[in-house]
Amino acid sequence: MTRQSRFNVDQHKAASRQVKLVRKRLLDLASDLSRYYRTTGCCYQATIAALQAVDVLRSRLDRQISRECPDDPSVAHVYYTRSTIQKGKDEHKQ
Fold this sequence. Notes:
Blueprint: H1 9-36, H2 42-68, H3 82-93
């Protein structure tokens, strides 16, 4: 059985850009929906669930690249923006 090839660093960086774009668009949609519909409504809740799924994917891809390239500092948290990382650190301090 042959081993399946993995993403290289450039492919991970391209995937990171796609994941960030999808997340931003879902956030924009959630914001629009919350202005015009109840936040308990099914459309808004489905958007939040989709955001959570994207966050799980982002976390798993980040963990994957960290395992595949442990000695490459340029890939550290490639799926997260600096502001996301800082926000997470600030939340843990509280």
